[in-house]
Amino acid sequence: MTASATSSSAALAARFDARLMPNYGTPPIALVRGEGRHVWDADGTRYLDLVAGIAVSSLGHAHPALVKAVSDQVATLAHTSNLYVHEREVELAERLTALIGPGGDTARVFFANSGTEANEAALKLVRRAAGTGRHRIVSTVNGFHGRTSGALALTGKPAIRDPFGPFGLDVAFVPYGDTEALRDAVDDTCAAVFVEPTQGEAGIVEAPEGYLGAVRSICDATGAAFVLDEIQSGIGRTGRWFAHQQAGVLPDVLTLAKGLGGGLPIGACVGIGRFATAFAKGDHGSTFGGNPVACAAALAVLDTIEAEGLLDAVTANGGLLARGVTAIGHPLIAGVRGAGLWRGIALTSPEAAGVQSAAAAHGFLVNAVAPDVVRVAPPLTITAGEIGEFTAALPAILRAASDQETT
Ligand SMILES: *Cc1c(COP(=O)(O)O)cnc(C)c1O
């Protein structure tokens, strides 16, 4: 870290270090404010934000539509609990199910406060639907579904999973993208298959063409539920409302969070067909789930994606980003993966952390999602000009990262 020991960022880091649990390590940058695609740190440095709080701040920072929706709602009615109905949650459920398109007419929604909670709801939902005797779950190696015990049990990353087991859930892991392994693992004792359309936390790892279709047919053949975790990929990130729409495949259960609230905490578990009504009264709940402020934020996100034509912009600007990075032809860059504004820059050696810090020193926030993958997931509102600023700076960033490595 280059900031002096007396900088505001460093002072805050020291306080963080003393009173926050060490699970995150101490982040090197303290952010104080954001506007559009930019954020400022405690020392006054401005960054172009290509992380968006891990694919969350879909409208960027302080978007007027989000500010107004949240401010108006908090001034009107901030919380009701689920003992009372309020219109925002009904409206949001109506909008989300409509966005699914064909097949979504049967869908119903449970609102939670995070991604992991959306997957916990999905887990209970599929087990309720399967009944007793059919409790095995199949998930994928290196997949990520969250940090609470149920979602963690489904997460195929040994480093974060193994210290907390056993989980009391029968989960089998198959290599991601391997149709034959999935076919072998799924039988009529299997309640559900949990899968991401592209593995986000693994480093934007794409499945081979046709994989989601194969998951669909394996689930159809065995009666297992197909749960698609679109917590990171959903709500416009790939240039479609949902990544599965590109594949033309409809899951039984869809989980959402991250970009849905544009920075306000909200998750959703969407059940389709018989999964829409698999929970009976009393089966699940959340005090904060469907909170009016979070729902108002999500409605503002959906409205703004429509009003500003962001799905087309994501496709165009995502292509620009991928082509721009590829065109650099630097030996450290192995390739660019992903779709829309959800990209992994794969490196030829494990220097992603060095690229992340060199990028910050040049005024760009990117994320070392894996030792050899840099994740770029900017606000959906990013402009072609801002992407050009990043691709223009990237050669110097890579040079600085390589220099760090050799000194
Ligand atoms: C982030 C993420 C989660 C967990 O969401 P939280 O809000 O952090 O609980 C689950 N699944 C996927 C695919 C994610 O990217």
Description:
This protein has 407 residues and is an alpha/beta fold. The protein folds into two domains: 5-63 and 309-406, Aspartate Aminotransferase, domain 1; 77-307, Type I PLP-dependent aspartate aminotransferase-like (Major domain) (Aspartate Aminotransferase, domain 2, 3-Layer(aba) Sandwich). The chain is 39% helix and 18% strand. The protein has 14 helices and 17 strands. Strands 4-12-11-10-7-5-6 form a seven-stranded mixed sheet, sandwiched between helices. A four-stranded mixed sheet has the order 1-2-3-15. A four-stranded antiparallel sheet has the order 13-14-17-16, covered by helices on one side. The longest helix is centred in the C-terminal third of the chain and has 23 residues, at 384-406. It is globular and about 60 Å long. The protein starts with 7 loop residues before the first helix and ends with a helix. The structure holds pyridoxal-5'-phosphate (PLP). Residues 114-116, 119, 144-146, 196, 200-201, 229, 231-232, 257-258 line the site of pyridoxal-5'-phosphate (PLP). Pyridoxal-5'-phosphate is lined by residues 114-116, 119, 144-146, 196, 200-201, 229, 231-232, 257-258. It is an enzyme of class 2 (transferase).
Task: Sum up the overall morphology in one term.
Answer: globular
Tell me the distance between the termini.
Answer: 15 Å
CATH topology-level name of the largest domain: Aspartate Aminotransferase, domain 2
Mean pLDDT: 96
- Count of structural domains: 2
Counting H and I runs of at least 4 residues, what is the number of helices?
14
Q: Which ligands are bound?
A: pyridoxal-5'-phosphate
- In terms of quaternary structure, the protein is single chain
Q: How would you name the CATH homologous superfamily of the largest domain?
A: Type I PLP-dependent aspartate aminotransferase-like (Major domain)
Instruction: Enumerate the strands of the largest sheet in spatial order, edge to edge or round the barrel.
Output: 4-12-11-10-7-5-6
Radius of gyration equals 21 Å
Identify the CATH class of the largest domain: Alpha Beta
CATH hierarchy: architecture of the largest domain: 3-Layer(aba) Sandwich
EC number: 2.6.1.11
Subcellular location: Cytoplasm
Subunit structure: Homodimer.
InterPro entries: AcOrn/SuccOrn_fam (IPR004636), Aminotrans_3 (IPR005814), Aminotrans_3_PPA_site (IPR049704), Class-III_PLP-dep_AT (IPR050103), PyrdxlP-dep_Trfase (IPR015424), PyrdxlP-dep_Trfase_major (IPR015421), PyrdxlP-dep_Trfase_small (IPR015422)
